[in-house]
Amino acid sequence: MAVLEMKQVKKTFGTGHKKVDALKETNFHAEQGELIAVIGPSGSGKSTFLTIAGGLLSPTNGEVLINNANISTLNEKQLSKIRLKEIGFILQASNLVPFLTVEKQLKLLDKVKKDNMSKEQLEQLYTDLGIGDLRGKYPSDLSGGERQRVAIAKALYSNPSIILADEPTASLDSDRAYEVMELLKEETKSKKTTTIVVTHDIRLVDYCDKVYKMVDGVLELQ
Amino acid sequence: MFLAWNEIMKNKLRFTLIIGVLMLVAYLVFFLSGLANGLASLNREAVDKWDADAIVLTEESDQSLTQSSFAADLVDGIDADETAVLGQLNAIAQTGDQKANVSIFGIDSGEFIMPEVTEGSAFTSGNEVIAGDSLKDDGFRLGDTLSLSSTEETLEIVGFTDEARFNAAPVLYTDVETFERVKFGEEAAGTDRQISGFVVRTADLAAVTDEEDLAVIETETFIESLPGYTEQSLTLNFMIYFLFVISSVIVAIFLYVLTVQKISMFGVMKAQGIPSGYLARSVIAQTAILAAIGVVVGLGLTLLTGAFLPSAVPVTFDIPTMLIYGMVLIVVAILGAVFSVLTIVKIDPLKAIGG
Ligand SMILES: Nc1ncnc2c1ncn2[C@@H]1O[C@H](COP(=O)(O)OP(=O)(O)OP(=O)(O)O)[C@@H](O)[C@H]1O
Ligand SMILES: [Mg+2]
For labelling alongside B166, which of A171, B72, B87, B312 has CA 20 to 30 A away? Predict the structure, then answer.
């Protein structure tokens, strides 16, 4: 069963001279338990693709289905609910709340949503990501890589059915980067989630089941 | 609450500043309300003490007790549950070096406007008075003999009573005969008793009198027409209401600036799927916390200041009024937050995260 499906999705920014076809007509589907990589040069449309998939950006044409439900017709409030329940975002820029400690970044999700990770699962996650000792710290006191790992923890904590990661390993050294990919793979397989990772790092594609390449708004399976 | 409180704890300095400003506004509001209250009692204390429904004065006096004068036997035409005669006169009382503006009330000791004596005794024979105890602050004592500005008559303070000021002057209560002698001189003795008004308690004001020359004035109306009273209370109340507006605007500006600074952070949370409603509630909760702390500290500070003020400053704190004003301050602060809430609702998560 396709967890995520795109039908003839197209995204155009601007009009007239300034018109940019960031994403040309795309058909795409991702199954449960799949780890998918999207690679491609800068400005090719990878982030555009990912934000449309996550219901953050609405396409110019076409339909996006999450768990067979069409999200293209939903309003902002309903989309927000879908994002909260179904999707874990790991964004290109840091996405932590500056005045919350690491621990409270996750606790915030408990305030707005049920069925997050259990205590034991959370402890395991801390260990896997190597951030157990950081839980009392504020984002401003973390290194870029540590912040990235906390962002990953935040995305996984809500047990989403789809994880969308935009350059999750960009600020990590290669050992950590491999570990993070390993972790994403494990999560994907054990929890039967669907994970899409946008990356520049060609070595990381070895961990993935499928690799797509984005060139000038055209997505192609490798 | 979770977000609101954690943010306050992380940015203590920033939020202490906001609380400080709110506290100062609250302090000013409470102090002005105390002043308004104090100045009002200065004028109306003695009248409130009557616990009366209305006062009957001559039509031509234009609601002024001092200007009203008529024969006491008109009481036969008055229809009320209780009626008390009242003669009133302003004078300067002097004993030794002490001088004070006073208001002399000529009353019948058996009627309901007779004050309770808190010190000394009631007047029993002519030229004895019960004085308002604020005169004690001016150096007047039991047994003092008072000479008056307008007459050769002298009065003796035989007792004191509390809450006895009328139109900013302490009251000297005496019998109607003494009042007449002070007002009209010796020759008035023996003629018809001339008084200034009847104080009445009744449910039916319209039925009090048919007399064309007399006007029945409700107690509250009577107080409002005391010289300077309405002007004073309007001015102070206007300042208080204006402060409410100011505090709302201050909060609005502060929060708006904070919110604009946090747009990308709110965007990130919205991208994550945290509902706008949750974020909006958190801003409201934050405002309520800040305003509540500011108001409580302001209240404490006001009461503390009040305890150290010299008695000459006419400040009287009325706790129920202050609680209401405190509530109003919190509510207007929250209204100030509405701006920021609208901003949050409108944030586009995608733009905010720079996606
Ligand atoms: N909001 C926007 N308005 C106009 N043009 C946009 C907007 N967002 C993206 N674009 C354009 O769409 C194209 C695709 O952008 P996108 O961000 O998807 O690239 P990307 O593949 O993620 O690049 P990178 O690897 O550098 O992150 C670019 O040419 C970009 O300039
Ligand atoms: Mg990108």
Answer: B72
